[in-house]
Specification:
alpha/beta, single chain, about 40% helix, about 220 residues
């Protein structure tokens, strides 16, 4: 699941982002309500974890705006405001769930699994498309039912492309994914990895859109 974390506590955000990624979620973080709303309008996320105590806009007002953008968009409120009034108001405004800080990370994972089941994205940890299957929990990739040897960077690139089937991923977007996973990236890193990845995948599985980026087509 592609998550947006709207949290201004940098230490908490960094720790959460790492834990969520280790649990198989692609996670981006922004620290203000304005940035969060812009990110949600991009349409690239499946759900948002929203802090109510943001520096620029009250989190409940951000929640209202999210529901104006898409009334069905899943929102999990994560906040230090653990009073019953804030909780009830957030749920009444359309939040799907609520966790008060401090919280247990396993409980957060459980709440996210509920959202995944509602979205229909928790059927399996395996993404399968045209003879390629990636297991986002085991971090493995199989081609025609045979597991192949992919490096960490190669795995992350394939995972990003398969999570965005039919959507072109620019070189910069793929580089950002590697940076966010703590990987060093040089000027030709993506081209080199794409070349190596193609040797392990079916012919023409990854298509180059000249001057734009790379895509795994829906067909």
């Amino acid at each position: 699941m592609r998550l947006l974390l709207v949290e201004d506590d940098i230490d908490l955000a960094n720790g959460l982002r790492e834990s969520l990624r280790n649990n198989g979620h692609s996670t981006d973080n922004v620290s203000t309500g304005k940035e969060g709303l812009l990110a949600i309008k991009s349409g690239d996320f499946d759900s948002v974890i929203l802090d109510l105590g943001l520096p620029d806009i009250d989190g409940l007002d951000v929640l209202k705006e999210i529901k104006k953008i898409d009334s069905t968009f899943p929102v999990l409120i994560l906040t230090a405001k653990d009073g019953i009034e804030s909780k009830v108001r957030g749920l009444d405004l359309g939040a799907d769930d609520y966790l008060a800080k401090p919280f247990n990370i396993e409980e957060l994972f459980a709440r996210l699994r509920v959202i995944e089941r509602r979205l229909g994205t928790h059927v399996s940890s395996i993404i399968t498309h045209n003879d390629v299957a990636i297991d986002t929990q085991a971090h493995t990739i199989a081609v025609n039912n045979l597991e192949q040897n992919f490096s960490r960077r190669e795995y992350m690139i394939v995972k990003t492309l398969l999570e965005n089937i039919g959507r072109i991923q620019s070189k910069e977007q793929l580089e950002t994914q590697l940076y966010e996973w703590g990987e060093e990236v040089s000027s030709n890193t993506i081209e080199v990895h794409i070349s190596n990845i193609r040797k392990k995948l079916p012919t023409n599985y990854i298509k180059t859109v000249r001057g734009v980026g790379y895509v795994v087509s829906k067909l």
